[in-house]
Design goal:
Length: 265
């Protein structure tokens, strides 16, 4: 069984329990449910650096990344660094994430927040809205085209933006309506191995009507400049920031350096 199959198996059990503890009717009563969401699409279009900084404490491939820093400090620092958006891992079992991290973040920052998790059930989309997310991620490798179409329609109905994450050419065929962003992941979710050229190989095959973002293994300004030439507008960076003692400071310096290279004041 691959890591991804294990994650999906654990997630199914988790969702079953959550539906009992927090039924949809309860989720819809959340104070976040009626709020107007922030648009990651608009932010990426107006912010030339396009950095989406991630809060991630652990991963199956790297183990513990950072277990000492508080989510409140990191997200506030990311916001003041000038990020286009913030990604929060909410998977507990494999990534030490939790919904409370997203809820806390939503209460203190005014930038779009992506809920990063393994969405396999409509329940999780309602849940995403209830904890304060603005954007959800649909991973093509674990969903059928039909599921992606249904999930993205539900997300749009409750004012959430949608990123479809693809890793190979086959998954491009799963791109459907109601998607806002196509994310190309350099990390193979079956093996968790990173191939830095994956984004460059697949970029020309993505329709130009979608904003393209690059994910995984990005740690260098020169890499971003190369990706920008291929039409990428957004860049999801987590580990490069989170493995340092002060992720926000590293993020700020990274964005400053990138801005300088792009001749942005």
């Amino acid at each position: 069984m691959s890591i991804l199959e294990k994650i999906v198996s654990v997630k199914q059990k988790e969702i079953y329990k959550n539906k009992i503890i927090r039924p949809i009717k309860k989720l819809e009563k959340s104070s976040f449910f009626e709020r107007k969401t922030f648009s990651l699409v608009k932010n990426i279009k107006k912010n030339h650096t396009g950095i989406i900084a991630e809060f991630k404490c652990k991963s199956p491939s790297k183990g513990i990344i950072n277990k000492t820093i508080s989510v409140e400090k990191v997200v506030k620092d990311y916001e003041s660094a000038g990020v286009s958006g913030i990604s929060i891992l909410t998977d507990q079992h494999f990534f030490s994430g939790k919904n409370e991290n997203l809820e806390k973040s939503r209460s203190i920052v005014s930038v779009p927040i992506l809920r990063k998790d393994f969405i396999i059930d409509e329940y999780q989309i309602i849940e995403s809205k209830s904890v304060g997310a603005d954007v959800i991620l649909l991973i093509a490798g674990i969903l059928s085209k039909n599921q992606i179409a249904n999930f993205s329609k539900l997300a749009k109905d409750i004012d959430l933006e949608v990123i479809i994450e693809i890793h190979n050419e086959y998954e491009i065929n799963k791109i459907t309506d109601n998607l806002d962003i196509v994310g190309i992941n350099n990390r193979d979710l079956q093996t968790f191995i990173v191939d830095y050229n994956n984004c460059l190989r697949l970029s020309s095959k993505i329709p130009n009507s979608y904003i393209k973002i690059a994910e995984s293994g990005i740690a260098d300004v020169n890499h971003i400049l190369k990706l920008k030439k291929q039409g990428f507008k957004g860049f999801l960076i987590g580990e490069h920031f989170m493995k340092k003692k002060d992720p926000g400071k590293i993020c700020k310096n990274f964005i400053k350096s990138l801005s300088k290279r792009l001749n942005i004041e």
